[in-house]
Amino acid sequence: MAREWSTLRELLLPAVAGASRGRRGRVLEAELRAAIRAGRLPPATRLPATRDLAGQLGLARGTVTAAYAQLIAEGYLVARHGSGTRVAEAATVGGPVASGTVASGPVAGDPAAGPAAGGVGVPGAADAVLATPAPARPRWRFDLRTGLPALGAFPRADWVAATRAGLAGLSSEALGYPDPAGLPELRRELVGYLGRVRAVAATPGRVVITNGSTEGLALVARVLRAAGHRVVAVEHPSHPGQRELLRVHGLTPVPVPVDEDGIDVTALAATGARAVVVTSAHQFPLGVVLAPHRRHALLAWARNRDAVVVEDDYDAEHRYDRPALGAVQALAPERVVYLGSVSKVLAPALRIGWLVAPARLAADLVELKRLNDLGCGTLPQAAFAHLLRAGGYDRHLRRTRALYRRRRDALVAALAEHLPHWHPVGVAAGLHVVVRLPDGTDDTALRERLARHGIHAPALADFAPAPVAAPFPGLVLGYTALSPDRLRAAVAEIARLARGG
């Protein structure tokens, strides 16, 4: 079995793993130094313990200790007993992201330039369309829907403690109407977290806290519509709620095929669209990763078309066999709007999401957020900021990643045993797996047959925009809500029904 990548505090440094064994110490130093200078590791960011980072990168602990010591000597890091190793407050930070400021208005010539005009929109519809509730039934025997974490694993005690600590740290003034961009403390914590785990290039002024990533996409859609966009490219297949949300806000979604390397950028260019929504780290639903050559082609298209890339990083923290690639946003922060939330890590009920915007779009997005609902609730934001700062979020991820890996392994093993001609597609990541069925199978008819017997197993055809067909017949099976034993029982029952039993 492949090793599990889980540490107390994670740090995304893919170049280290790819370096030759004799050079990894020097590469580690260089990567940390570059991350600090570029602002991906802001001042005061706490780094992983040497033992944790060594385990994550497959290095000797002494190699990490030596790299930390060198950067401490150079003034990039500071180490204090009891508080770990952190980025120095006076560390030299350069690069366009760290030194830039948020524009006070749109930049002429930008695809989203112009005032964020228009009505407040329909937030109720926007919030609803990306949810994936099971069809109305009294009770599913086996519910394999996608998109939900293990809700029973929610860290209730940690959240209660974080709520108390967050509230205790708020001033009386902070209990008034919130900053529409979000609680400043949370935006600072997110800059540090996203920088070290997803390599996102951000400053607090570019972060907007939203009611889930759905509201973030709705805000971006309204900015695009106000700037004159009428079509937005989307991946094919993709979440039907995403396409519905874009239509609600006056945009026509245009499907672009996805293959084993991710979205087809040549086909994207042929659409004439100047905006696209991608799930690059773990394509939904196919589960493929946007290949490096496609990443560069996508950003070249964005530059040539003066276009906007919306990167939905919906479940990138859940990778089970190897470290994830960094976010596409890190390669072109002025071309990419980055979306994320806690819905796939903690629980959708918290309604905490965020977007990281190019500087030229940030002011318009904050103003739309102000007009929409005056900002998100301060108390949940304060609790989440404390959870990030104290390491509770990382600890929860470490636990659930191991849990989901066991459940995914159980599902895949059961499929191999009972349905050897059904093949899992995509990388070992996320909260679901796509299973490719034999050619000629009617996956919609199979989904309906399973539903009649109390099994909720969405068909891949459900994620294709009619009349465009799905690339192959398949089922999209979520595995995080069921124990390994229940998953094995579900697959045995699916096999019996698929054979006509």
From TrEMBL:
PROSITE patterns: HTH_GNTR. One of its GO terms (molecular function) is DNA-binding transcription factor activity. The keyword Transcription applies. Gene3D superfamilies: Type I PLP-dependent aspartate aminotransferase-like (Major domain), Winged helix-like DNA-binding domain superfamily/Winged helix DNA-binding domain. Residues 22-90 form the HTH gntR-type domain. It holds the Pfam family Aminotran_1_2. Keywords: Aminotransferase, DNA-binding, Pyridoxal phosphate, Transcription, Transcription regulation, Transferase. It comes from the Bacteria. CDD domains: AAT_like, WHTH_GntR. InterPro entries: Aminotransferase_I/II_large (IPR004839), HTH_trans_reg/aminotransferase (IPR051446), PyrdxlP-dep_Trfase (IPR015424), PyrdxlP-dep_Trfase_major (IPR015421), Tscrpt_reg_HTH_GntR (IPR000524), WH-like_DNA-bd_sf (IPR036388), WH_DNA-bd_sf (IPR036390). PANTHER family: HTH-TYPE TRANSCRIPTIONAL REGULATORY PROTEIN GABR. In the C-terminal section; belongs to the class-I pyridoxal-phosphate-dependent aminotransferase family. This is GntR family transcriptional regulator / MocR family aminotransferase.
